[in-house]
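Example 4.3 (complexes with small molecules)
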Amino acid sequence: MRKEFVEVQRGDFQFWGHNCFSVSNEFTTLLIDPWFSNSGAFCSSWFQYPKNHHLKNCVLDLICEKKNIFIFVSHEHQDHFDKEFLSCVPPNVKIIIPKYFDKDFRNQIIKDSNNVVELENNEKYSLDNEISILLFIKDIGINHDAAILVKTNNFVFFNQNDCKIFDQIYKVKETIDFYSVQFSGANWHPSNFNFSDKKKKKISSEKVNSKFANVLNALNILKPKYFIPAAGPAIFPFLEKELSLGQNNIFVHQPELKNFLEDNQFKNTLFLKPGESFNSNNSEPIKVPSFEDIKSYKIGLKNKWSDIPDKFDRFVLEEEINERFSKIDDINIKNCPVLIFNYGNVFNKDDRTTQNKIFIDIENKKLLETFDYASNYQEIVSKEKYFYLMCNERWQNVYLTLRAKVFRKPDIFNNDLNIFLFSDSSNIKDNFLSTYYIDQERIDIKNKKGECFRINRYCPHQKADLCNAEINEDNHLICPVHGWKFDLNNGGIDKRSNLTINSRNKKCLEN
Ligand code: FES
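Answer. The structure with FE2/S2 (inorganic) cluster bound is encoded below.
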């Protein structure tokens, strides 16, 4: 792709680290997802890489000198929603958020600001007569996120951050100058799961390949003048060092992405460092940190994990679980493994005692006195601190601390268990209902050999639109969002989850 000139003055468009960008003109500044906290996110598990803490005051100065100040916060994850930073901004700042079905994020924001604008999917909003924005919202069950398209007189910036709208990317009709999207992973699977190193490596590499393929596909559709990789990877200075290296896990770094993009003939990547603007024209990726780098990164950080009490009150957590059960009492849940909270910090499948364990029967909405490990289960093993957090924090924030080990039998993803585990009491019922409701529209698709199949249009995982999904040489349809593979020869089943898109060979249908 040919480099083309984009007319941007220094300061009109700047990168501040992770997913934070600013777009400015003489009177207005829009700041996207500011995250500067020196205690990181998720109880000090995740940290900005490279460090950007020193730029916080610079950004505050930048916004304070403008008449119109807007901050867009894409979603509730703490690496995008930095309460500490937001508490420092002047009261005239307008906070823009997507309008999600679940009101928890909005309620957290309005607690500290009465200047909040909620925007709908595809709603255009003008910040002044030069800068306008448009949101693309993904809002399904436990997952909500939004991409933002920013249009100025000089350039168009499309910031997709972590938002998995890869199935909808063709709906973006603008000519894009700058495109930014997350390219590394951000999940506890497989790093926290009880897999052999070989299995972890295999799953991680599949996930990384799938993410890279999504990025490349988006680049081919959007044809931006420049791609700016952002929104990760974070590093994890207080966790096992290997996580921060991005090797054999999903938290891959820019050099790996650079090789991939160059192998695929995409050259116009800007590897911006925190504080840099477009004019830096930087083509060198941010390097993978060494052990030494991680050690010196730690200097001056605040570690919130160490402030958490070592003991928790089991009764309080059981109350919380029962509260969740009461909210989903009338939801019919089938084939869900028993969830076990093991606060003894040790897993031993031969240990059939009930000591330090809470057995949660999600299907029947009750706590069990005992469990013999003969049926299916998923066990979350960690220290009491972790379960103390579960009594006091949003559960999604707790699992994102990456401070638990997960054991499951069999090794199959279960949607219901995830909804139960990652919802809050306030939204658990809606999360089940919105995940259960899937439009039953059927579509016809063709593989490379020209064979026709009729399938469900929407992915049973998180409802990605499968209209434009790729079909590989093994006749698996690949979901464009998380890369699940639905076997078209075998009724459209995905073997990782046993969920299906009900494929029927058209020939069979016609006979
Ligand atoms: S939406 Fe996640 S695999 Fe399809």
